Amino acid sequence: AFLGPPEFNISSCLRCINITLKLPSTHVRKNGKLLSLFDLYDYFDCEITFKTLDGEHKRSRERFTEEPFSTVIEELYPNRNYCVSVMVTASLNKNSIPSAWKCIITDSVAKKDYRTITIAGAVCFSLILAVILKCMHVGGYILQKKSLPDTLV
Question: Which residues belong to any copy of the Interferon/interleukin receptor domain (predicted)?
């Protein structure tokens, strides 16, 4: 029997990609209960392949005994496109179907700085607006509590 492709999510960081995977479900039942793959096998090996402009790279297998399994591919170039495929083999079953490719762009330094500058700008703008509104209130231009004299009405 072949192990189906695992489900996985990828997210990017500055010079890395975070990968979180979940094993495929089984159709095996025991006493009416649907068994997980961990009920059938002791451990699993995860093999990650990623593609860049330079070609295809395989990472060494990583063993795991519980899910969700997470790993990080580090030392990547910022602001580059990487495509990832994951394959899982079991302790007693080496037949596996790799997942479909998922692609992501790693974060760039400028993108991180841009977010910080945007937030700082929004905070400064809010403070300046609050000061202007307070000055207008103190000066009597907005939110007046005193009614006007009858002669001015």
Answer: 3-106
- In one-letter notation, the amino acid at residue 120 is A
CB 1 within 8 A of CB 88: no
For the record, the structure tokens of 130 come out as: 């609050």
Nearest Cα neighbor of 100 from 1, 7, 2, 3 is 7
The structural domain count of the chain equals 2
67: its two tokens:
């899910």
- Give residue 22's domain range: 7-106
Is residue 34 within 8 Å of 121, Cβ to Cβ? no
Q: Which of the 8 DSSP states describes residue 23?
A: P
CATH number, position 85: 2.60.40.10
Q: Is the model's pTM score more than 0.70?
A: no
| SS3 label, residue 79 | coil
Give the model's pLDDT for residue 119. Answer: 79
Q: Which of 16, 34, 4 is nearest to 84 (CA)?
A: 16
